[in-house]
Design a protein that fits this description.
By secondary structure, this protein is an alpha+beta fold. The chain contains eight helices and 20 strands. The protein folds into two domains: 228 residues, Rossmann fold, CATH 3.40.50; 99 residues, no CATH class. It has a six-stranded mixed beta sheet, with helices on both faces. Helix 2 crosses helix 3, helix 2 runs parallel beside helix 4 and helix 3 crosses helix 4. The longest helix has 18 residues.
Length: 335
């Protein structure tokens, strides 16, 4: 439905977006995930029609949107700062876009009530938005975006200003709403938890380039680059030296090399070593002195003196030497 083709954009002489291309299918939620300054929000504004690219095109159902102003694209936008009108009631905010469509008042009223029901704000029509909590204001912003029946929903860090518990609650509600509505969506965030929770597909942006895309599981298990692995904190990134016979020696142990690259003995490589699926054994494998043990809800984060950390179901004693067995699938070659 949405196609973004070869988008280029610069800022103060520096390339911000470089040859960006991707698509969003019907009913699909795509998350643009990356650090601050990676160009995510600028790309969203270009798709919305609020900025123009220097090169490239945005298409909807095959139509080039270059000459279509933002208000005629029928795309819904939700921002981190809510962008609500403080002088209007909840109903007034939700109805704002509907009035611009010149709909009959009866239909506007019906849509306001229906949309507020979808976001669990039934009965809030006459409330002032300034009297609402942050989570309630964000629901109003979502209702305002949903009310005109948008062809596409776009979210720019919408949960960034909320505390953890409220953010998790709204993530669950947002996922439910997106699934029920069937509206395709683009969700911009720097938070991988949000991206992996909400997305059907993740696009990982770095320095204006999409360096990895796939389902959340695909991106997490195979980040594809050193930067992506470190950004996602997907495991221990360690340097190694290729040995004869397809082995790699690292500071935390020697592993069998499974890699799509061509390497010779003596080459330096970078490995991604998973923190999970690790077994504690009586001898062999990786060994190290435990320097710290941190409780996590699903186990214990164990930090070794040599630097790496792993997750174990039971807590070893600090100061003790332990031996760990890493399954072959827990080691990937990044370069």
């Amino acid at each position: 439905m949405l196609e973004v083709k070869n988008i280029w954009k610069s800022y103060q002489g520096q390339s911000l977006l470089r040859n960006i291309s991707f698509s969003v299918a019907a009913g699909e939620t795509v998350c643009l995930l990356g650090a601050s300054g990676s160009g995510k929000s600028t790309l969203l504004r270009i798709i919305a029609g609020l900025e123009s690219p220097e090169q490239g095109q945005v298409f909807w159902a095959g139509e080039n949107l270059a000459s279509v102003p933002a208000y005629r694209r029928v795309f819904g936008l939700v921002f981190q700062d809510y962008a609500l009108f403080p002088h209007l009631t909840v109903a007034g905010n939700v109805a704002f876009g509907l009035k611009m469509l010149d709909l009959p008042q009866d239909e506007i009223n019906e849509r306001v009530v229906s949309t507020l029901n979808k976001v669990n704000l039934a009965g809030f029509e006459s409330r002032r938005v300034t009297d609402l909590s942050g989570g309630e204001q964000q629901r109003v912003a979502l209702a305002r975006a949903l009310a005109p029946d948008p062809r596409l929903l776009m979210f720019d860090e919408p949960l960034g200003a909320l505390d953890r518990n409220l953010r998790e609650q709204l993530m669950t509600e947002l996922r439910r709403i997106l699934r029920l509505s069937g509206v395709p969506a683009i969700y911009v965030t720097h938070d991988q938890e949000e991206a992996f929770f909400l997305a059907d597909r993740v696009l990982l942006l770095h320095e204006g380039i999409i360096i990895r895309e796939g389902t959340p599981a695909e991106v997490w298990t195979d980040p594809g680059s050193v930067w992506a692995a470190r950004f996602l904190d997907a495991g221990n990134v360690v340097m190694g030296v290729v040995l004869p016979g397809g082995k790699v020696k690292t500071i935390i142990g020697t592993f069998t090399l499974k890699c799509g690259h061509v390497h010779q003995a003596g080459d330096e490589v970078t490995l991604l070593v998973s923190r999970r699926g690790i077994r504690q054994v009586s001898e062999g494998g990786i060994s190290g002195i435990v320097t710290d043990v941190i409780f996590r809800q699903d186990g214990y984060k164990v930090i070794l003196e040599s630097g790496p950390d792993f997750y174990l179901p039971e807590a070893p004693q600090v100061g003790r030497v332990i031996f760990l067995e890493i399954p072959p699938e827990g080691v990937k070659c990044l370069s």
